[in-house]
Amino acid sequence: MTSFPFIQSMGATAFLFPGQGSQQVGMLQELSQHYAVAKETFAEADDLLGINLSELCFSGPEEQLTDTINAQPALLTASVAVLRVLQQELGERLQQASTGGATFVAGHSMGEYTALVAAGSLTFADGLRLVRERGRLMKWAGEQKPGMMAAVLGPEEAVVAAACAEASAQGGFVQVANDNCPGQTVISGDKVGMEAAMAALTAAGARRVKALAVSIAAHSPLMQPAADQLRAAIAATPLTPPLVP
Q1: Of 22, 79, 168, 219, which residue is the catalytic one?
Q2: In which region does residue 42 sit, left (phi positive, over 0), alpha (psi from -120 to 50) or beta (all else)?
Q3: How do residues 133-188 score in pLDDT, each as one tens digit?
Q4: 177 in the Ramachandran plot: left (φ > 0), alpha (ψ -120 to 50) or beta?
Q5: How many Å is the Cα radius of gyration of the chain?
Q6: Catalytic site residue 109?
Q7: What are phi and psi of 154, to 5 degrees?
């Protein structure tokens, strides 16, 4: 197994944790075969949730792994497994890597929960239970109002937003969900609105319009029923000040 030579030249260090759509069948299987701490992390998740999450990550099926109720705890577990391997490999050097002695953490979408675990604000157990409940509620909301998401490469956000508004005016609903960076925007909405917007953006010359491996219309008003109920779960979860920014 390759070690982590980048530590020798590391300055200030940030760990950025991914959100839904990053999962794939087989993820972390090789790492778990080489590092006991990674294997133990998946076993811990299996026990905490009462499901065979590790088997789902390693062997699929893909449709079940993509289901938001499974994808969210799967990604948190995979990210924490990688983090623990890094901590084991780098030890004290990880804490001393940046010029100020600090490590920074951040997360994209669901990855914010993983970042809170990495920062010490959430325990792994509490974070895992919280994203499992988040996934359950988002799946429930998606069953009430089915939807999807897609990445749009090429046009600026304003152009994508205009296409979404035009598609919504013709029926259905679609909006910009994530303005990731110049030239990369994610849209979210119900099937009617999404299909209209995706077709319009493709016809307008977008470099790529690709449906994401996400089972719900995240980052859209279609998730409001889930948000309303998730507040109670968040309020009941212990949160402590982060150990790192």
Answers
A1: 219
A2: alpha
A3: 999 999 999 999 999 999 999 999 999 999 999 999 999 999 999 999 999 999 99
A4: alpha
A5: 19
A6: yes
A7: 125, -75
The tens digit of pLDDT for each residue in 65-95 reads 999 999 999 999 999 999 999 888 877 555 5
Active site residue 22: no
- 109, 121, 188, 220: the catalytic one is 109
Amino acid at position 36, single letter = A
């005016």: which residue's tokens? Answer: 169
Reported pTM: 0.85
Residue written as token pair 């080489």:
34
